[in-house]
């Protein structure tokens, strides 16, 4: 009996050390997985496409933009992104850096993605220096793809 109990504990310990599988979307809409969320975000931001950005958000998402605007819901976020793309970020682009994806259950994950922001301009039109941004999001699988319940974009020092 003692040997079986030890064996059982070793098996349980081995299971605990295994990395959690990353959530993946299966089906007919392109097979987008949670890792590709960050690429889709960077592409939409870099092309100043507010409509594509808000498709990555749930209807009731809470968003804090890189300029500090707090938005509740897709429409408020779309308006905030559009204003940023007409001003400070009219020619900005994001370059992906380190990312961490932490699955928290079936169809849910916490996402942390670093970006380098280049091409931002000041109010007088002068180029701003590159800076680091951190995207923190709680993403869930919905019928139309991965969407953020919360999406906070923070400037790093």
DSSP helix count? 4
Q: What's the multimeric state?
A: single chain
H and E string? HHHEEHEEEE
Q: Order of strands in the sheet with the most strands?
A: 2-1-6-5-4-3
**DSSP strand (E) fraction?**
35-45%
The CATH class turns out to be Alpha Beta
Q: Give the number of DSSP strands.
A: 6
Helix content: 25-40%
Structural class: alpha+beta
Describe the protein in words.
This protein is α+β, with helices and mostly antiparallel strands. It has a single domain, classed as Nuclear Transport Factor 2, Chain: A. Helix content is 29%, strand content 38%. The protein is built from four helices and six strands, in the order αααββαββββ. It has helices at residues 2-17, 36-46, 50-55, 74-86; strands spanning 57-64, 70-72, 93-105, 108-118, 131-142, 145-156. Strands 2-1-6-5-4-3 form a six-stranded mixed sheet. The chain is globular and about 45 Å long. Residues 1-31 have low confidence and may be disordered. This is DUF4440 domain-containing protein. Residues 39-125 form the DUF4440 domain. It comes from Paragemmobacter aquarius. It holds the Pfam family DUF4440.
Defining traits:
NTF2-like_dom_sf, globular, Nuclear Transport Factor 2, Chain: A, 29% helix, alpha+beta, 4 helices, 157 residues, 6 strands, DUF4440, DUF4440 domain-containing protein
